[in-house]
Design a protein that fits this description.
Layout lengths: L3 H20 L13 E4 L2 E5 L4 H4 L7 E8 L2 E9 L2 E6 L10 H5 L6 E6 L17 H14 L5 E5 L3 H10 L5 E6 L15 H6 L4 H9 L18 H14 L4 H8 L9 H12 L5 E6 L9 H7 L5 E4 L10 H29 L5
Parallel strand pairs: 5-6, 5-7, 7-8, 8-9, 9-10
Antiparallel strand pairs: 1-2, 2-3, 3-4, 4-6
Length: 360
């Protein structure tokens, strides 16, 4: 009996080591395949027919396609409408579908709504956990904007869509003409601080994998992040979670939580400083729409107001994914910003005409 105990203990230790190795592995690159071609003014792109469980959430007017920004790195883009470009960037762990209700509230005969999905999420390519860095995500989304050959746009971003979107726009500084800021953060940390208790826990190796990969699904917890939990029903949980899980590489949600800074020495902080500097140098029409029932970022509103001191602020009862709860408020802010741009443009044209010398 005594000899069996060490043997059993050895077996348990080996099994535990194998298990830990499995859940902490870096993950594989998964490259999605489309079918057919989408023709845009910027060129031809690989079409991606949506599966039924996703297609039912949008209209037939939507275009669904890939932009390959690096070999094997395909960003899935949803697009609807024509006119002034509106770039809408989601965060973790959702997809471009997060803005579908906002798009419904926009006049698609006036605006072209562009909704990319971050690499690792939705129907975009999946990459090893170690490749999820802010620098990479900024570069990938910047690649989308470059390939679409946009000359100007209005932008909205939430969660990681804030820093990633602004980081991408900082690489093309003449592109951004106006912004609507949702629940996000755009500032580098000045002191050590975790964004939330959950972020503090999951940054610990193995513990994070056990929590998000074994104990529960982050997607099933999405309703708890809302002011109204019913705003994310089961079919919307499936919309966000199923493409990630079925891909065989579900590393992105945890990796992106670990991307969040916890102090000045975090690997993400240098890029956040660049983004903060860009944001604080902006002089554009902007509005802030904030979900005050967001358990993570509601407290960050004062900091966002410092970044955009002249921006009107609309406080809502929404939670973290406020696009699911208050789409009319977000769409209204986007249209007001676009109208401001049009008024300024018209005033500039009228001024130029007034200063023109009389014909001889």
């Amino acid at each position: 009996m005594k000899t069996r105990i060490p043997i059993l203990l050895g077996v348990v230790i080996i099994a535990a080591m194998v298990f830990v190795g499995m859940i902490t592995r870096d993950g594989d690159r998964v490259v999605p395949e489309g079918e057919g071609t989408i023709f845009l003014d910027a060129g031809e792109f690989e079409a991606f027919p949506l599966p039924d469980y996703a297609a039912k959430h949008v209209t037939d007017d939507y275009k669904s396609y890939f932009v390959e920004v690096d070999p094997g790195i395909k960003v899935h883009v949803l697009e609807v409408g024509s006119g002034f470009p509106v770039f809408l960037q989601h965060g973790n762990p959702t997809s471009g579908f997060l803005y579908r209700k906002v798009a419904e509230e926009l006049p698609t005969d006036r605006v072209r709504v562009i909704m990319p999905t971050l690499v690792g999420l939705g129907f975009s390519s999946k990459v090893p956990a170690s490749e999820h860095t802010l620098d990479n995500h900024v570069r990938w989304i910047s690649g989308v904007l470059e390939q679409l050959q946009l000359m100007e746009l209005v932008y909205a971003g939430q969660d990681w869509g804030g820093p990633i979107g602004m980081g991408a726009l900082a690489r093309s500084p003449d592109l951004l003409k106006g912004a609507v800021l949702l629940n996000t953060g755009l500032n580098a940390p000045k002191e050590e601080m975790d964004l939330s208790r959950a972020h503090a826990i999951v940054k610990t190796p193995v513990v994070g994998e056990l929590m998000l990969g074994v104990a529960f699904s982050i997607f099933e917890r999405l309703p708890q992040m809302q002011g109204d939990p019913d705003s994310i029903p089961a079919d919307v949980v499936e919309l966000y979670g199923r493409p990630v899980v079925e891909s065989g590489n579900d590393k992105a949600p945890l990796a992106m939580m670990r991307m969040v800074t916890d102090g000045p020495d975090h690997p993400t902080t240098p890029q956040m400083r660049v983004i903060e500097g860009y944001v604080q140098g902006l002089d554009i029409p902007a509005e802030i729409i904030w979900g005050m029932n967001d358990p993570i970022l509601s407290k960050s509103l004062p900091l966002m107001k410092q970044n955009f001191p002249d921006a009107p602020v609309t406080k809502t009862e929404g939670g973290h994914f406020l696009q699911e709860e208050v789409p009319p408020e977000i769409a209204g802010a986007l249209l007001r910003v676009i109208d401001q741009l049009q008024i300024s443009k018209n005033e500039g044209m009228n001024g130029a005409v007034a200063k023109a010398p009389p014909a001889s």
